[in-house]
Design a protein that fits this description.
DUF1825 family protein, mainly alpha, 106 residues, DUF1825
């Protein structure tokens, strides 16, 4: 069975995508959030980022051909933007840390 044949993998991929899309959409109103709303938004973004990091690590460690192809596609897309997957995660983390400092940390 391939990695994408797994119902668990399909559900987590769909859940990650939907959660991220919802947060991106909500992010357009971030400036109007009160302090507690901003804290909640940042926490949810951190949670999604960690779930994505784990999801991709599973793909990296998998022997499945499609998992390896998915990782290579991500690397190729990111390299076109001049970064690696680790740099992408680091940049996202830095952005969230800046957002925290702007609201006075938790």
């Amino acid at each position: 069975m391939g990695i994408f044949d797994s119902e668990i993998v399909q559900q987590e991929a769909m859940s990650l995508f939907q959660d991220y899309q919802n947060l991106v959409e909500m992010g357009g109103r971030y400036g109007k959030f009160d302090r507690e709303g901003k804290k909640l938004y940042i926490q949810q973004m951190e949670d999604v980022l960690e779930r994505y990091r784990i999801f991709m690590k599973r793909f990296e460690l998998s022997d499945d051909f499609m998992a390896k192809m998915t990782v290579e596609q991500l690397k190729t897309q990111l390299s076109q933007a001049g970064m690696t997957p680790q740099q992408m995660f680091d940049q996202m983390h830095l952005t969230l840390e800046r957002m925290k400092s702007e609201i006075g940390e938790y």
